[in-house]
Specification:
Layout (H helix, E strand, L loop, with lengths): L5 H6 L5 H4 L6 H4 L7 H31 L4 E3 L2 E3 L4 H6 L5 E7 L2 E7 L3 H10 L4 H4 L3 E4 L7
Length: 146
């Protein structure tokens, strides 16, 4: 038997790739999809891998930012510096953009934004103006909020 350092190195990796595919094992994730053509199956596989890549980048960048800036986010069991991407994305479920039209004027208000939402935006290099825009009133139906 040949001894190799690769299995140990592989097991010691801090990666999100394999755990990220865990949801695929759930029959409900794939069962409702009927793809007859190989091209469509390949396209679904590519979109799945692309989605996992985005998921992994979100998790990596947020964790790196939190570590280098000595910050924490709310997690499943209190504050954490190592949130999963699921936790990071779940933080945004309480954020809502409310748009109303009153007498040809648009009234827009962002609700539910907390300081940790802006921290995540900063960690990911995203423009946080979507979440910091104060209540705006605009004339005309063709104008959109940021």
């Amino acid at each position: 038997m040949i001894s190799s350092p690769y299995p140990t190195t592989y097991q010691e990796q801090n990666t999100t790739v394999e755990p990220g595919f865990r949801w695929i094992k759930n029959p409900a994730a794939i069962a409702p999809v009927w793809l007859e053509k190989p091209e469509r199956i390949a396209a679904l596989a590519m979109l799945t891998v692309l989605g996992l890549l985005v998921y992994s980048v979100i998790q990596r960048q947020v964790r790196l930012y939190l570590r280098t800036h000595d910050q924490q986010l709310p997690g499943n069991k209190g504050l954490t510096a190592t949130p999963t991407a699921v936790v990071v994305l779940a933080l945004f479920t309480q954020v809502a953009l409310v748009q109303l039209w009153i007498d040809e004027q648009e009234v827009a208000q962002v609700a539910g934004v907390q300081p940790y939402h802006l921290l995540v935006c900063e960690a990911l290099g995203l423009d946080d103006s979507w979440y910091t825009v104060p209540s705006a009133q605009k004339n005309g139906r063709d104008i959109q909020t940021p």
